[in-house]
Amino acid sequence: MTAVTATPPVASPATEPQQPEGTQPSAAPKAARKRRSRVAPVGLVLAIIVLAVAIAWAFVPSLFTGYDPLTGVPAEKLQAPSLAHPFGTDSIGRDLLARVIYGSVHSLTGALIAVLVGLVVGTTLGVIAGALGGIVDDIVMRIVDVLLSIPSLLLSLSIIILLGFGTVNAAIAVGVASIAAFARLVRSEVVKVRASDYIEAAYGSGGTTVHVLIRHVLPNSLTSVFALAALQFGTAILAISTLGFLGYGAPPPTPEWGLLIAEGRNYVATAWWLTTLPGLIVVAVVVSANRLSSALARRTP
């Protein structure tokens, strides 16, 4: 009889070593994931920088250019981009970069007004519909459905024709077109929060409807609304620029972004920078606002 000796199994190099029973896994991977989560993506950082520069243009334009946006030098008309004029000059010799910088206050202010109109009115309608329910909810949401069925540009044009031309009126028109989106989102959030246990506990402890709405429902319903507000900010810039391009926004010679693009469309073949460079600024700001909105939406629980 020959003795057979057992050969210990050889661990495969591709197999990870097993943790002994009763021991906790290493905290190193968790720490690495936390460090990675703290590092902001490059795209988000660039978006914040672009928005910060645009806001700085609106508040302190004189820090970024020494040219007058309304006065030009006829002898320097339609000059291509250069060191003296990074965005070139327009048909009457005005520095295009100066007009873009000074025009940011009109476009950004208009977008802010539009977002505030949609946010305030839409949030109010959404809270009323979600909190009261019943026939009030049905009436409000049918109105919202009607607003959603109308194309936003057509609705904005209809409102601005009634109000008159101008940046503020265009912003109000764009804001009215965004009310339905805010109302629908807020209503769904209020309905979801209203069914929570802590809301029932708040009512059980003697809280009134107004107190519970202000103290508990609203703070827990507006987290996702901020992401929509950032998205609507970029959309409002694009919509106001579109209205300005069509001639419904600020009158000439106001350096509004949409109007700048409209003024350069007759020179596309000979002076491409008059439409291309302001258009790129609009695209950069809108994309940056959308990127910030996506980051806020991912952080929403």
From TrEMBL:
GO biological process: transmembrane transport
SUPFAM superfamilies: MetI-like (SSF161098)
Top-level taxon of origin: Bacteria
Alphabetically ordered keywords of this record: Cell membrane, Membrane, Transmembrane, Transmembrane helix, Transport
Keyword Transmembrane helix: yes
TM stretches of this protein: 39-60, 111-136, 143-162, 168-186, 225-250, 270-289
GO CC list: plasma membrane
CDD domains: TM_PBP2 (cd06261)
Region (Disordered): 1-33
Entry's localization field: Cell membrane
Membrane topology: Multi-pass membrane protein
Biased composition (Low complexity): 1-17
Every ABC transmembrane type-1 domain range: 104-293
The family this protein is said to belong to: Belongs to the binding-protein-dependent transport system permease family.
Protein name, UniProt field: ABC transporter permease
